[in-house]
User: Which sequence fits this backbone?
């Protein structure tokens, strides 16, 4: 079976988001929106061939925790795993 996994990675709340602050300032110059906070994260899409969904989910957790996210400053979330054709 073929799957598509979507993983969100975000800086932890207490970590300063310098790129997010720069984009927030630019938004203030380009629009009239009153943005109080803007944070930038990562979205990772992984396409997988697997016959064992349970094992695949465990492996996704392992990759997210040990490779994809810097768990000292980032939190991760497997947002969705969907079967595709």
Assistant:
């Amino acid at each position: 079976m073929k799957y598509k996994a979507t993983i969100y990675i975000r800086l932890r709340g207490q970590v300063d988001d310098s790129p997010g602050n720069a984009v927030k300032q630019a938004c203030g110059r380009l629009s009239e929106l009153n943005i109080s906070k803007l944070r930038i994260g990562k979205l990772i899409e992984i396409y997988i061939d697997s016959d064992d969904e349970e094992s695949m989910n465990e492996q996704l957790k392992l990759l997210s925790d040990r490779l994809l996210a810097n768990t000292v400053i980032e939190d991760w979330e497997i947002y969705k795993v969907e079967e595709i054709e």
About this structure: Helices lie at 18-30, 53-68. Residues 2-84 form a domain with the Mth169; Chain: A , fold (CATH 3.30.1280.10).
